[in-house]
Design brief:
heterodimer; A: 2 domains; 3-stranded antiparallel β-sheet; extended; B: about 260 residues; alpha/beta; Rossmann fold; 10 helices; 10 strands; globular
């Protein structure tokens, strides 16, 4: 038997205890550091690979808006592609063969004429003048200029042919090529051409979907939680409801998609691929999160506040509205934001209702066809063109930014509610 | 300090029983409480004195599984009858709790809350007057008049409890129930509250639960001794403390049990 009164024994024990505490602290610190390191690595690799998507190389062309290509009566019907190609040909008078001409046109983006078309339609008086405009180059040329395609490789191993290189070098030597901020990434809808593909369609789709989700799930969730926590009698039936709500939070999200397909689209004949249906499905998915968080927030309010209010003659409704709910608001908002952030990153349930789709137009309202950010990212990741690699990462960066904005808003509102007391 | 003048009976309890689920907490209490007197309810922990207090403003109603039997009448009207609206009743019977529990709002809003929800002071000027009068009655006005917008939770414990008293009397109740109002306070704050209770007695009927024999002796005109859910003895405070009729009462008062 050890003698506890032995000072040596006690000193040894004390030392051991301090060692254990130091070890424990070191483990914790290591855990935090490795988590932070992984996060930094993840973010920096995504941001780094997204950088090429935010700029694009353009070439300056002197476009002659001649009446050969467009008439003042119907500016929308003009042959703007021909107009731009003619301007490009001007730079290369030596190119005359038909096949060479076709190769020359390939260095321009499909969307090279968008800008001039918009300008002329907006202002038909431009017809007859010559405009100096920067038009986008094709994605492969752009990648080569960014150094992502090695021009020193043998021709057979790279997408850009030697002939293309000659064209580009000539334009470079005339200082007609420059890199611009890729505004198309933010203003365009989806496209098969990487340099024309933008996030705006998916971003609008995501925002519309989230608005529907919030409008449906927040009031429903909070009211359900208030009823269950404050009003409902505690009996078998409410216990059953409680168990079910807790279980719903663990249901795989694709099941909600199937439900949405069966109920909203097949039964209620709502439109396919619409943010309305997507929002409803995600609202169902978010409801348990909001209900559970709200109930937790409500039950955390000390009973003394309720008693104080009842003691001066507040009705049950007044106790909830004047005291309990305002005090629980920060917790409720936190739960709502967690639910919404989850919904914003969800793809599986939307797959079932047709929101994983190639949709070029930017949705204007909740019944228009739309896709969402995570679906867009997934679809871009599936495209074979190399320029979509950067686009995919850029999509992720934009999705993360959206989540960050949503979270920041939540924190702002939470602070405001807390400040009132 | 016995009030010798014949007081009218304000609160009449008859055969009051309380069950928490299966457990019976009060076994048929018969007790009359006089108007404009301070009645102290004393007894060891778990004897049912707080439960009885909470019967008077039906605060027990909100406790899950709590059933109240018998009758409690205020001014000869049974408050457990169907015609009584609980909200309206609680405006007439104010309550001060063991732990100071001001709302996490400003001092002004704490006091103004009751008058606001009952529509007692429609204009801002009237509300201001009610708040000032209530804080003055609670002896807190001088200390807080320059910071009515400060949070009520920022006051000291004794001030918070006086704020709670001001909040309770702002709706002008006839009865004020106090559930060990001084148990969380130091002797100085306790003395201030006790003075206040003596002062309030002129306008209100006060029922106070206390664990302090000395406090009961100091501030009350009548004392009721509870033990294990029974009312053992009640009568003028002086009589209870000097020559109790029941042995249990004597044992408790002299510190042998409890």
């Amino acid at each position: 038997m050890t003698d506890y009164s032995d000072p040596q024994y006690r000193a040894a024990r004390l030392k051991k205890r301090y060692r254990a505490e130091r070890r424990f602290r070191a483990y914790g610190l290591a855990a935090v550091l490795s988590a932070a390191l992984i996060l930094v690595f993840l973010l920096s690799s995504i941001i780094y690979s997204s950088l090429p998507a935010f700029s694009h190389h353009h070439v300056r062309l002197d476009i002659e808006v001649s009446s050969d290509y467009v008439s003042a009566e119907a500016p929308a019907d003009g042959n703007y592609l021909g107009m731009v190609r003619a301007a490009l040909r001007q730079q290369f008078p030596e190119v005359t063969a038909r096949s060479d001409k076709r190769a020359l046109y390939q260095i321009l983006s499909i969307g090279a004429y968008d800008d001039i078309q918009k300008r002329v339609i907006a202002d038909p008086s431009l017809i007859g003048s010559t405009m100096s405009l920067y038009v986008p180059l094709s994605d492969d040329i752009d990648l080569m200029l960014k150094g992502l395609i090695d021009r020193n490789l043998p021709e057979s191993e790279r997408i850009v042919s030697d002939r293309d290189l000659q064209f580009v070098d000539k334009l470079l030597s005339e200082e007609r090529i420059r890199s611009q901020f890729a505004i198309a990434l933010f203003t365009n809808g989806d496209s098969r051409e990487p340099e024309m593909a933008g996030i705006r369609g998916a971003l609008s789709g995501s925002l519309l979907t989230l608005v529907v989700t919030l409008i449906v799930s927040f009031p429903l969730g909070v009211l359900a939680a208030i009823y269950l926590e404050e009003v409902a009698p505690k009996n078998r039936f409410t216990a059953l409801i409680e168990v079910n709500i807790n279980n719903l939070a663990a249901v795989p999200s694709i099941v909600y998609g199937l439900l949405g397909l069966a109920v909203f689209i097949n039964f209620f004949s709502m439109p396919r691929s619409a943010p309305l249906v997507g929002g409803l499905v995600l609202a169902l998915m978010t409801l348990p999160t909001i209900i559970i968080a709200t109930r937790a927030a409500l039950s955390a309010i000390p009973p003394s506040i309720r008693e104080a209010a009842m003691g001066v003659g507040a009705s049950r409704f007044q106790v909830i509205m004047h005291h309990v709910l305002p005090l629980a608001m920060p917790g409720i908002l936190t739960g709502t934001i967690i639910g919404l952030a989850q919904a914003a990153g969800e793809t599986a349930p939307l797959l079932m209702i047709g929101m994983m789709a190639f949709i070029v137009d930017v949705p204007g309202d909740v019944t228009a066809k739309a896709t969402v950010l995570p679906a867009q990212i997934y679809m871009w990741a599936n495209n074979p063109e190399r320029a979509f690699v950067a686009r995919t990462s850029a999509g992720i960066v934009i999705l993360l930014t959206l989540l960050l904005v949503v979270n920041a808003t939540a924190i702002y509102f939470r602070r405001r509610f807390e400040k009132r007391w | 300090m016995v009030n010798s003048e014949a007081s009218e009976v304000k609160i009449k309890a008859r055969e009051v029983t309380v069950h928490y689920g299966e457990a019976r907490a009060l076994h048929g209490i018969d007790l009359d409480l006089n108007a404009n007197e301070v009645t102290a309810l004393i007894g060891p922990s778990g004897c049912g004195k707080s439960t009885f207090l909470r019967c008077i403003n039906r605060m027990n109603d909100v406790i899950e599984g709590c059933r109240v039997g018998g009758a409690v009448s205020i001014d000869d009207q049974n408050i457990y009858s169907d015609e009584i609206d609980v909200v309206e009743l609680r405006a007439r019977v104010g309550m001060v709790f063991q732990k100071p529990n001001p709302f996490p709002k400003s001092i002004y809003d704490n006091v103004a809350y009751g008058p606001r929800i009952h529509g007692m002071a429609p204009s801002r000027a009237q509300l201001d007057a009610v708040v000032e009068a209530s804080l003055k009655r609670a002896g807190l006005w001088e200390e807080v008049k320059d910071r009515l917008d400060a949070p009520g939770t920022g006051l000291s414990g004794g001030q918070q409890q006086r704020l709670c008293i001001a909040r309770a009397i702002a709706v002008n109740p006839a009865i004020v129930l106090m559930d060990e109002p001084c148990s969380a306070l130091d002797p100085i704050a306790t003395a201030v509250i006790e003075e206040l209770i003596e002062e309030l007695r002129r306008d209100y009927t006060i029922v106070i639960v206390t664990h302090s024999m000395q406090q009961a002796a100091r501030i009350s005109q009548r004392t009721a001794y509870f033990h294990l859910g029974n009312l053992v003895e009640h009568g003028p405070t002086q009589a209870i403390f000097t020559k109790p009729e029941n042995q249990q009462t004597e044992a408790y008062i002299s510190g042998k049990i409890g």
